[in-house]
UniProtKB/TrEMBL annotation:
Residues 10-26 have a biased composition (Pro residues). Residues 101-135 form a coiled coil. Residues 1-33 are annotated as: Disordered. It holds the Pfam family MerR_1. This is MerR family transcriptional regulator. It comes from the Bacteria. GO terms for molecular function: DNA binding; DNA-binding transcription factor activity. It comes from Candidatus Protofrankia californiensis. CDD domains: HTH_HspR. The keyword Coiled coil applies. PANTHER family: HTH-TYPE TRANSCRIPTIONAL REGULATOR YFMP, REDOX-CYCLING DRUG-SENSING TRANSCRIPTIONAL ACTIVATOR SOXR. The keyword Nucleus does not apply. Residues 35-104 form the HTH merR-type domain. InterPro entries: DNA-bd_dom_put_sf, MerR-type_HTH_dom, MerR_fam.
Length: 161
């Protein structure tokens, strides 16, 4: 019988040497599937597990939970942890500022989804309108007298009496 690799095992690094990197999701899970225990997620994000717990308490990153209330982090969570660390260390943003940035980012994603949906609805409505116009043109009678559009008629009043 073939043994399954542990989901919490250290993945092969894909980044620069010495920097743990999150693996690409395989067929068993996607970016949002919580699979990493806190120690592995902390290692992948380059942080201490206690920092992850603090970020969870502050609402910066909300990992999935097991039935025993253990934290499980997804690939997307690890990427978010890295972004929080980058904003904090490289940009000098405090945790309250990071929380606001993440909220605004979520709002932008929601609005972008709405724009995509409305764009699709608009395209559907335009196609329907064009179809109706074409249908109306087909039903018009063709017995109108053609007019030569290049003919010019000049009217000059006659002499007054």
């Amino acid at each position: 019988m073939k043994s399954r690799p542990s989901r919490t095992a250290d993945p092969p690094p894909t980044g620069p040497p010495g920097t743990p990197a999150a693996p690409r999701p395989g067929p068993a899970h996607d970016d949002d599937t919580p699979v990493y225990v806190i120690s592995i997620a902390a290692q992948l994000a380059g942080m201490h597990p206690q920092t992850l717990r603090a970020y969870d308490r502050l609402g910066l990153v909300t990992p999935g939970r097991t039935s025993g209330r253990g934290r499980r982090y997804s690939v997307r969570d690890v990427a978010l942890l890295r972004e929080v660390q980058r904003l904090s260390q490289e940009e000098g943003v405090n945790l309250q500022g990071i929380h606001r940035i993440l909220e605004l980012g979520s709002q932008v994603m929601v609005l972008q989804a709405q724009v995509r949906q409305l764009t699709e609805e608009l395209a559907t409505a335009r196609a329907e309108a064009e179809r109706r116009v074409a249908e109306a043109h087909k039903s018009h009678r063709r017995d109108l007298v053609p007019v030569d559009r290049s003919a010019i008629v000049v009217w000059r009043p006659g002499p007054r009496r």
